[in-house]
Specification:
This protein is an alpha/beta fold and 388 residues long. It has a domain of 131 residues: 3-Layer(aba) Sandwich (Peroxisomal Thiolase, Chain A, domain 1), CATH 3.40.47. The strands form two sheets. Strands 3-2-4-7-1-8-11-10-9 form a nine-stranded mixed β-sheet. α2 packs across α13 and α6 packs across α10. It is globular.
Length: 388
């Protein structure tokens, strides 16, 4: 246990017309400092999770955080990027600064403004997180990639369309309780299961309801050491934080096994001396419903090929034995790339602090986070608990 989250903020996710990356950063950064109850001058280091990827014209963004506070002039500020795990990469970098005693307070901000890009350009921008030499020609961008993964899984383990629809329906139902979520509508299993004009096939067996949303938004948090956190109003401690990277080309891996995800979970639980059953809930990276299904197996919730049991038997429902994505996940909450990992940490901290409002789970004492970049290439697991 090396650091704690002692303050946070989170803008609503969705389409923010008239906003830019800078304004979202400023809003989130200022609010997180106020929530932590520290002076801006107390911040020793700033880390910005921002994927960029062609979504915004402004490419050099680390010092945009300084627009929020004049006191941050001459503070070290660094942009961190690791595809869709960019936000968690920034958080984990902050933990290293705290552990190395290079900083007492670290401000971490995650941001993305995706909706300014024309719709046809968005899949191309996202596909830059794939191995372009081999995967650059896949039609539909990452939807096409995960469509192929779903097809392979179905070929090996049978048609899992019921399970994917149930995952989508669960996450949309959970999203109704999240005031920060982009889509707060209980779509129901039947709508998510059926192909229709409003829910067409997108890639392979994946329908629109199987795909996460194109989003704008920002989230921020403040980290400090355990000794300092003991004297602060709130403190959510890291029991473990693990990063595992796998090969980028899908051709070098069995892409329906998510081995990097499994390795990250195994290392994190081992480091924390915990079992998966010890966790009260998990926020996991459901960029597509097939990803959540594979993550059930990778985290050890279900044996390989049997992930469907976890959703169809209610294990991952809000009242199940291991609630997964009580926030609504990327599927309902939204997925502004650079903000996603920070958002996961903020929402987990809110649960553990008992401040999650309508999302609040009973007896939430240990929370797990899995955030990934690419197809289980950059894998981050965090295990959090209240310090006191």
């Amino acid at each position: 246990m090396t650091a704690c989250i002692v303050g946070w903020s989170h803008t609503p996710f969705g389409k923010h017309e008239g906003r830019d990356v800078e304004s979202l950063i400023v809003e989130a950064a200022s609010a997180a400092i106020r929530h932590a109850g520290i002076a801006p001058a107390d911040v020793d280091e700033i880390l910005l999770g921002h994927y960029g990827g062609g979504f915004a014209g402004q490419g050099f963004t680390s010092s945009l955080v300084l627009q929020a506070e004049d006191a941050w002039r001459f503070k070290p500020a660094t942009r961190v990027e690791n595809a869709c795990a960019t936000g968690s990469a920034a958080v984990h970098q902050g933990l290293k600064s705290i552990a190395a005693r290079q900083a007492r307070f670290v401000l971490v901000v995650g941001v993305e403004k995706m909706t300014d890009l024309p719709g046809a350009e968005i899949p191309k921008a996202l596909l830059t997180a794939a191995y372009l030499k081999e995967e650059g020609g896949i039609e539909g961008g990452f939807a096409g990639v995960f469509g192929q993964i779903a097809q392979r899984y179905f070929q090996e383990h049978g048609d899992q369309s019921d399970a994917l629809a149930a995952i989508a329906a669960k996450n949309h139902k959970n999203g109704c309780n999240n005031p920060l979520a982009q889509l707060r509508k209980d779509l129901g299993f039947e709508f998510c299961r059926a192909v229709s004009d409003k829910n067409p096939l997108v890639a392979g067996p994946l329908k629109r309801t199987d795909c996460s949303l194109v989003s704008d938004g920002a989230a921020a948090l403040v980290l400090t050491d355990v000794e300092t956190a003991l004297a602060m109003p709130r403190a959510i401690a890291f029991r473990a934080a693990v990063q595992v990277n796998d090969f980028l080309p899908m051709s070098r891996r069995d892409v329906i096994r998510f081995e990097g995800c499994a390795e990250a979970w195994q290392r994190a639980l081992g480091k924390a001396k915990l079992q998966l059953d010890d966790l009260a809930f998990v926020e996991t990276h459901d960029c597509f419903t097939i990803a959540e299904l594979l993550e059930y197996e990778a985290m050890g919730l279900a044996p390989r090929g049997q992930g469907a049991r976890a959703i169809l038997e209610g294990w991952t429902a809000a009242d199940g034995k291991l609630p997964v994505n009580p926030s609504g996940g990327l599927k309902a909450k939204g997925h502004p790339i650079g903000a996603t990992g920070v958002s996961m940490h903020v929402l987990t901290a809110m649960q553990l602090a008992g401040q999650a409002g309508a999302m609040q789970l009973a007896d939430a004492k240990l929370g797990g986070i899995f955030n990934m970049g690419g197809v289980a290439v950059a894998n981050y697991v965090s295990l959090l608990e209240p310090l006191r």
